[in-house]
Amino acid sequence: LHGPPSSGKSHLLNAACLEARRSGLTAFYLALGNLPPEASASLDGLEAMDLVCLDDLHGVAGNATWEEALFHFINRLREAGRGRLLVASRERLGALALGLPDLRSRLAWGLRLELQTLDEAGKREVMLRRAEALHIDLPEEVVDYLLRHGRRGMGELLFALEQLRLGAITEKRRITVPLARRVLAADAVETDSEGSRDEVPGGGAE
Description:
By secondary structure, this protein is mainly alpha-helical. 48% of the residues lie in helices and 7% in strands. It contains 7 helices and 3 strands. A 3-stranded parallel β-sheet has the order 1-2-3, with helices on one face. The longest helix has 18 residues, at 154-171. The radius of gyration is 20 Å and the shape is elongated.
């Protein structure tokens, strides 16, 4: 899977792991990110899993240690003949700065799909469905306010929704535009000091 930030890659990988476990299968999720080369040893033995989900491949592309470890892991997984592999990256396979041609060829064995970020209507639907799942009343005017004044990433919008839920519980009040205004103001201060949130939380999270 490849697509820009907030297109739901991490969300889909985490959801796939959750569904596999619900079906009685074994599943393992690993966010590669900017993991150090020595962390590549975490791939050892994963060929015994029914499903392995590797996120943020772009974070280790070009790292010779990681690329060799991934190459050998895919070979072991194929030889085991039982597991499935899901890999996510911000860049499509052809654009990844991979230095090991054999790894690129192994990754090309599978189906490749591109994810797109949601438009405003899609984001609205996701927020309303999430609010329904949380059993909270989310007025349309609050959704409008979040989409107009909040950060546009789906993960950030869902984070704001969670903060609204907690704020409403704490203050024992309905979710309103003034509450949303305060939540966004507090979030802006926190984000400026800690960095932006990325991706759709996939069970939690991109």
